Inverse folding.
């Protein structure tokens, strides 16, 4: 399956987590993302060095700033079981906004087309490292890493993209400019007709 890309709608899928009462729950991605601006970021594995020391801490530290940009949810996904994700989440006591979701069988990761074969390292199927910005289920930003790199999927990268995003697409700008020209021509025509009537 081709990797999900900008302009695509994210598929639905069910992920697992432990709630505040320590009860195992399942949740659909669409229930979390429909009608909202959501960041989905994924890591190859819980407790791994880059994921634990750089990727996740970045989103925790920048969560308030991302929220100020209109982000409603920040979701961390990993191909691990929910017990591992629960233990990993507890290593970040200052976390208030990042939700840790388990994709134990990699079914959702595969639905995104972002699985990574790490069988040669004894890790089986995992997720590529990525960060998606999704608005009402549509992908607006898709920063997907190559291999084990960590160069484009950080919280800072998403913030940078958000700060550079125009208020509306360039195609809309062209359309607005074209409509403005048409309106100007229409106004001039009305003025000419009015002048002729005044002359009569």
């Amino acid at each position: 399956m081709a990797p999900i890309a900008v302009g695509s709608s994210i598929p639905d899928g069910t992920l697992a987590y432990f709630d505040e009462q320590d009860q195992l729950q399942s949740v659909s991605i669409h229930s979390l993302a429909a009608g909202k601006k959501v960041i989905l970021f994924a890591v190859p594995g819980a407790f791994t060095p880059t994921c634990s020391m750089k990727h996740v801490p970045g989103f925790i530290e920048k969560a308030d700033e991302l929220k100020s940009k209109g982000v409603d949810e920040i979701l961390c996904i990993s191909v691990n079981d929910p017990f591992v994700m629960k233990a990993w989440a507890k290593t970040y006591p200052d976390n208030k906004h990042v939700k840790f979701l388990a994709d134990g069988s990699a079914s959702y990761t595969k639905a995104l087309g972002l699985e990574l074969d790490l069988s040669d390292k004894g890790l089986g199927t995992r997720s590529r490292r990525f960060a998606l910005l999704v608005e009402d289920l549509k992908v607006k930003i898709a920063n997907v890493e190559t291999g084990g790199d960590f160069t484009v999927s950080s919280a800072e990268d998403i913030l940078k993209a958000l700060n550079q995003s125009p208020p509306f697409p360039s195609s809309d700008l062209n359309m607005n400019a074209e409509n403005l020209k048409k309106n100007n021509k229409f106004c001039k025509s009305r003025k000419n007709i009015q002048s002729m009537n005044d002359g009569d």
Q: What stands out?
A: Residues 14-165 form a domain with the Glutaredoxin fold (CATH 3.40.30.10). Residues 22 and 32 are 20 Å apart (CA to CA). The longest strand covers residues 37-43. The beta strands are 14-18, 24-28, 37-43, 73-78, 98-102, 115-117, 125-127, 130-135, 138-144.
